[in-house]
Amino acid sequence: MTSPPTAAAPAAKSPAFRHELYPYQGEAAFLEGATSFVEDAMRADETVLVAVGSDKQAILRDALGTNPADRQVTFVDTAALGRNPGRLIPAWQEWIAKAVSDGQPVRGISESPWTTATAAERSELRYHEWLLNLTFADSPAWWLLCPYDTSTVEAAVLESARRCHPFQLAEGVHGDNSAFAEGPFLFDELEAPCDPQESLSYGAGALGAVRDKVTACATRHGLTGPRLSELLVAATEVAANSVRHGGGWGTLRTWVEGDVLICQFHDTGHIADPLVGRSRPKPHQLGGRGLWLVQQLCDLVQIRSTAEQGTTVRLITALA
Amino acid sequence: MRIARSVASLAPVGVGDHVCWAVPAKADFQRAALAYLTDGTRLGDKIMVVGSPSRSWRLDLRGPQGVLVDPSACDVDWDANALVSLLRQEAEEAGRQGFRALRVLAHMDHFWPAGLTPRQVADHELRLDAVIGASAAMVVCAYAGSGFLPDVLGQAATVHPHFAGDRDAAPSFQVFSAGEDCWNVSGVVDADGAPAFHTAVTELLRTTDTLRLRCQGLELMDAAGMQALVEASGAHPGRTIMVEDANPLVRKCWELLGYDSPAVPVELVP
C-alpha cells in the first residue's frame, strides 16, 4: 500500500478551487489519505471541513485524536441535508463562506454515500461532483478532496469521477488528473416511466389540476400529511415553470416504482443554466426561486434539459 | 367568524355573506336570483337590487321593504364609493326599521364603467366586504361572464369570501375582511393566482400602515405568491405586512426562500 502523501503544493496555475479525486481501497487507505490531508492543513494553519458518513467520521476522529485539530477541523452533518444531492452545493457554499470569513484558508473532505444511494441518487451525486467545478470556479480558493473507495464504488461512478476531478491524489502524490475532461456532463438515461401512460396536459390556470393528479396518486399509495403538502408545492413550482418558461404548457405523469413516488413533468423549454436552483436566493432577487424551493422540498430531483428535446423534471418522493 | 366558501348555487347565502356569483345562463339566473330575493322577504329582510330587476319578479322595491338602485337611470355620477356608502346607510336603516338584515343583489354589469380593471374591482369589493363583514347585510354580486374580461372576473372571485358558480371558475384563494385593517387569506396562492393576489394586497396596503393578513385558511403559497406579497409591500415603502397564523409549510417555504430577512417588510408572526 502506498504511504500517505505529504501534500505537494498545488501547481502554479491551479484554479482557485482545487477539486481532487482520491481513489483508495479499504478503510486503512481512507484513513491514511484523509489524516495526512488534515495534518497538512493543520501545519499550514488552515481550516478543514469534513463531510463523510458517520462510520468514516468516527474512525477519522479517533485517528486525529484530541489535539489542536479540534479547533481547525469541523465535521459537518450532511445527514441533516437529507439524501438529495441538490442541497449539497448551497451547503458547501455556506460552510466555505463561513470558514473564509474567519480569515483562514479552507480545505474540505467529501465522500458521498455511494454504497447506500439508489441508482437515481448515484446519478445525481455524479452530476453534483461535475457541478462543483462550475460552482466554485470563481470562488475564494479552497481545496476539496473527494475519497472514492474503489473496492465498493461501481466502475461507472469511478469513471465519471475521474472525468470531473481536475486533480487527483495517487501513489501518495497530489497532482494533475490526466483523465479529467472538460465538457458537458454525460447524464444517465432516465428509466422509462412505468405508469399506464396516463398523462395530464396542463397550461395556464391548471396548477390546481396538477395538484389534484399528484394528490390522487400520492394518497393511493399512502403519502399524506406534511410530506404530501411539500410535494404539492414542488409540483406547483415545476408546472408553473412549464407555463412561464417551457412553451406555455407541459405534461405530467405520476407513478410508483418500488418505494418511491415519481412525478414527471415535461415541456418544450430549455434550462440553459446547469446551476439553476442550487444557490440560496437573495431576499430581493427577481425570479429564480422555484427550482431552489423544489430542491429543498423533495427527496430527489432529476432534471434533463436540452434545446432539442425540451425539459424533463422528475420529483422523487420516498413513500416509506 | 367568516369562513370562505365556494358552492354551485346561491342557496346557502346568510347574513354577513358577500358572494361573487358567476352568473349562469339567463333562465337559471332569473330563477336563482328570484329565489334568493323571495327568501329574503320570507325571512324578514329588506331587499335591495342594484341594476334592473326582471319584470316577471313582481317584487315591491319601492316601498319601505325594498330599494331599487339603477345606476343607468341616475342623474348623478355613480361610482364604487357611492355604492359602499349606500350599502352602509341602507344596512343601518334596515336595522332601525326592524328588518332582520339587508339583502342585496347587485348586477355588476349595470354598475361598473367600461374599461374596468382588476385593480378597480379589488379596491371596490374589498371596501364593500369590510362594510358587509361589520353589518347585518348580505350581498350577492352578480358577474355575468359576457360583461367582463377574464382577468376582471378572476380578480372579482378572489376578493369575495364566498363564490357561487361552476367549480371550474371558483377561485384558488380568497381575501376577505376579518375586522379593521385585518384580512383573511384562504385557499392556495400559486403562480396562477399571484397577479390577483398582488393586486388585492397592493390595494389593501394603500389605506393602512400595517396590514394584518390572517392565514389560518391558507393551505399553500408558492414562490410566485410569496414574491407577489413582497412586491406588494415594496409598492408602499414604509408600510408593513404582518402574516398571522401561517401553517408550518408556508413558514418553511418563506424561510427557504430567504424572505425571513429584516430587509423584507413582511413579517410572519404567530
TrEMBL record, chain A:
Gene3D superfamilies: Histidine kinase-like ATPase, C-terminal domain. Residues 206-316 form the Histidine kinase/HSP90-like ATPase domain. SUPFAM superfamilies: ATPase domain of HSP90 chaperone/DNA topoisomerase II/histidine kinase. Residues 18-166 form the MEDS domain. It holds the Pfam family MEDS. InterPro entries: Anti-sigma-factor_SerPK, HATPase_C_sf, HATPase_dom, MEDS_domain, RsbA-like_anti_sig. CDD domains: HATPase_RsbW-like. Keywords: Kinase, Serine/threonine-protein kinase, Transferase. Transmembrane segments: none annotated. GO terms for molecular function: kinase activity. This is Sensor histidine kinase. It comes from Actinacidiphila polyblastidii.
